[in-house]
Amino acid sequence: MKKYIGLFLLTSILFSACKKDIASLNNDPKNPVLVPSYALFTNAERTLASTMTSSNVNLNIFRLVEQQWQETTYTDESNYDITTRPIPDNLWNAMYRDVLYNLERAKTLIPTDVTGVDVQKNELATADILQVYTYYYLLTTFGNIPYTDALDIKKTFPRFDDAQTVYNSLLTRLDADIAALKTGASGFGAADVIYGGDITAWKKFAATLKLKMGITMVDVDNAKAKSVIESAIATGVFTSNSDNAKFTFVASPPNTNPIWVDLVQSARQDFVGNSTIMDLLQPLNPNGTPKYPADPRLPYFFTVNTDGQYAGANPGESATFSLFSKPSGPLLVKGSIGSITNPDFPATLLDYAETEFNLAEAASRGYAVAGTVAGHYNAGVTASVTDWGATAGAAATYLLQPNVAFATAAGSNNLQKIAVQKYLALYNRGWDAWIETRRLDYPVLLAPETAQTAFPVRFTYPVNEQNVNQVNYDKAAAAIGGDKVTTKLFFDKH
Predict the structure, then answer these.
(1) 127-176 pLDDT per residue, tens
(2) What CATH number is given to the structural domain containing 192?
(3) Report field, pTM of the whole predicted structure over 0.90
(4) Is 407 among the domain residues?
(5) Domain count of the chain?
(6) Which residues of 419-434 are buried (b: 16+ CB within 10 A; e: fewer)?
């Protein structure tokens, strides 16, 4: 009897073990059913930083449109061709699918996989702040976009919301996020590559983003812009380069600086400096001699050519790679952030230099801003110069040059003077430079002789939206005045 009982028990154990093992075969460790919220947040940060920084002509061509860089052989994008390659589709997908949706999924998981009410609030607010940031770039690129229906997978044909209405909604969300942040509690911790879960830093980031958004809307609603800007300043915006929002890449794949991937790892010779930005960095007399000393940022922005000179190619024209400066720069000064072609070079999402130029503009417009227009202008220039690795002394000397000193700098008014230095400070942040060029119409970017369209003041909607979501696409296109690159968006009133 004992023999049979033992056999029965052994059989039961083996059978149970087999059943358990068979069931476990359904679990794919590389594609888990449940992904923790912090992993989704980290991935969203990484994709956002990579998209904003990329130099891939299939995704981010803003350095080319803004004449910071020039293509050497295939010059389509330098000539404003954004449709031969599916650039709008790729940009749209990266921001909606890989950033916004991942952040939204993280927000749905935080209440159940994070302990502590204040920690939950901090993580929810931080994720929402990054969503506001992402929507800001979609709005200022396309105009009316899916928003109310955007992240609901049950709504396969999302309607497009009015851009200015969405913009105001984002400002309301940002205020709620600022109020929700609890500086005495933690956040995402190490999963937050930008600030390491520092809630005080995120609160300052949110206020600085609010200042930026207020400046962007000054020509469409001056009264609201004034209120938004003054409220942001009262909350507390960036006050030094130590506040800069930077996503630090690592030195080995796959989480490397996308510029390194595009230019170094791929061993391509596609880009050189553009003469437009080069002429501002190194003004020359008609005979080719220097009119003023070169901008101290020049060796951090570009290398010299084979003749040992800084030279930029003309906008839209093909260029021999060896004859022109390359978008790179050596680590010349201890403490410098190094070359933009280094694999671990960080992506900048928001910085102090831009903040000071925004404060300078706010002061120029008569808003309640402490300090003077010139003082904020000088601080913006100094912040940019030192962030790239040059010294404060070099910045001070540069600010004494007649073409840079606020009193004598080129431009018929304060805003144009600010615009030139802001344009230079937004090197390697071409998307932001494009927003400012459209908003201020300065510095003047002369169209390439072979341009395929007028200067693009927006991107056309993705082809997939036109084909799959046609009814809502047609309504959106009609609402903004036509799905064309020449259709001005709600904030672009000049």
Answers:
(1) 999 999 999 999 999 999 999 999 999 999 999 999 999 999 999 999 99
(2) 1.25.40.390
(3) yes
(4) no
(5) 1
(6) bbbbbbbbbbbbbbbb
